[in-house]
Structure formats: structure tokens, C-alpha cells
Amino acid sequence: MIEPKLEVPAELRDLAEKTIDQAEQAFGLFFDAASKSMTSMPGAGTEISKQALSFTEQNMKAAFEHARKLVHATDLQEAMRIQSEFLRSQFTNAGEHMRQISGSVMSATKDATKGKF
Length: 117
What we know:
81% of the residues lie in helices and 0% in strands. By secondary structure, the chain is mostly helical. The longest helix is centred in the C-terminal third of the chain and has 38 residues, at 76-113.
């Protein structure tokens, strides 16, 4: 069975790519503002919040890159391969992020309880 080609007009691909770029710029502004607001409000959870924000930013960048790749897929098989690779990398990254945040929480808890018992 032959997979049909995805016949998407170049204009539509260009529009999709421009939309992805604009969304990425908007999220970049959001992450800059969120990062600045965190540094202006120091607190016990600030470092963990910064770390979580950084992970979220990494995930969003990966999602935008994934969308760009999908825009250029030429057939369903390629689109499925791109999707599969993205999901696999996101699961791997999520596990690593959870491990790092858990370690940070444990460390912060240990520091906060020093000398209290």
C-alpha cells in the first residue's frame, strides 16, 4: 500500500511557520517576564520555581521545534515518525525533570529542617 503524499500548499506551510514563530516569540516574552518576577521576589521556593520555569521553557521550545518539523512532513509515515520521536524525547525529559525537581525539593527540605530536631 502506497502512502499518499501530504499535498499542503507552500503558502499554508509558510503561514503555519510564521504562526509558530509568533507564538514562540510571545512565549519568550512571557518566560522573560516570569523569570524577572521570580528574581524580584526571593523566597524558599524561588530556586525550585526557577527550575520548573526553565523546564517548562525547554518543553515549549521542543514543542515549537516539533511543530516546525510537522509543517514540513511530506507524508503520513514521516509525520508519525516525527510524532513518535517527539513523544519519546518528551517522556525521557519529563522523567529527568521530575528527578531533578525531586532532588531539589529533598535538598530544600533537608536545609529547612537543619537544627530543628
